[in-house]
């Protein structure tokens, strides 16, 4: 049962490799290390006792990708994480995002066709919903115009996969992630943001550990109970486990359609201030933060309707917000100790 995990040294990828190994899958990772480090493979081995195969590969390089697949065609499935994911960066350099996120997907799908590889699990995002009119958001909610080139690459990728599936043997599960946070309980793997973090939780933990002066809370005039924006935060290990369930569903031919879509969230919305309170409670650290203006392009409130994923996949996110924040904090402290 060999599975290719693209982006397998990255944040969600590395946690998924560990969960796949736990279930007895043999894993090959490819990653171009543009936003991750090769030693993540060592950390994975330390957690699971099994060293995953690893090849450094840029999936936008068609020749090298074809060559890789010529040597590794006996795959039961592919979980495709490898992509750029910074919203702001994508606004400044859209072409970089289209080339990377769409180009790599096309190369993978072409090789799936050639080598008769059937099953693809794809990392999509709740960003495809924009600001939904009805909450919680269901999988059949309308896809609104993307607010960034990054978001657009996720919408386009979903279309590319669906259209390709209609004219080939390829089947796919598109997983729409809400806000993944937290880290593995071993604190050996977690999120490693390059430079100044864009996302809330790494910014909180870096501020608390003293790497950043102050957290800016973007906006307190939203139409929410405390005025700050609301998201559906999900623990990365819960998210990783959903990928294993998805690939097992495909291998076992249990899917209802050739392309299935699932929301991966907890179904609970938390405001920025609630996240900060949870952090302060579990870490016993008082966070230095200040309310500032809204961040351009942010939506007010989004959280998932997880009924379909829970019922169909038999999967449910288990970790509470406090558990998520504690694991993020333990990871940040482990990083600080290594320095
Ligand atoms: N926030 C702050 N201060 C910060 C960072 C974030 O107040 O320093 C707030 C944001 O305004 C937002 C919330 O915290 O209200 C969460 O922000 P994140 O940047 O952590 O996450 P987003 O919801 O903006 O973005 C995430 C992913 C994107 C994805 C998007 C889909 O990071 O990749 O969800 O909605 F596109």
Task: Give an account of the 3D structure.
By secondary structure, the chain is α/β, with parallel strands linked by helices. It has two domains: 2-181 and 234-264, 3-Layer(aba) Sandwich (Rossmann fold), CATH 3.40.50; 200-230 and 267-334, UDP-galactose 4-epimerase, domain 1 (Alpha-Beta Complex). The protein has helices at residues 11-22, 40-48, 62-71, 87-92, 94-114, 149-166, 200-209, 236-251, 272-283, 307-313, 321-338, and strands at 2-6, 26-31, 53-56, 77-80, 119-125, 171-177, 179-181, 215-218, 230-231, 233-235, 259-264, 270-271, 289-292. Helix 1 (11-22) packs across helix 8. The mean pLDDT is 97. Bound molecules: uridine-5'-diphosphate-4-deoxy-4-fluoro-alpha-D-galactose. Residues 85, 87, 125-127, 151, 179, 198-200, 203, 215-218, 229, 231, 272, 295, 298 line the site of uridine-5'-diphosphate-4-deoxy-4-fluoro-alpha-D-galactose (UFG).
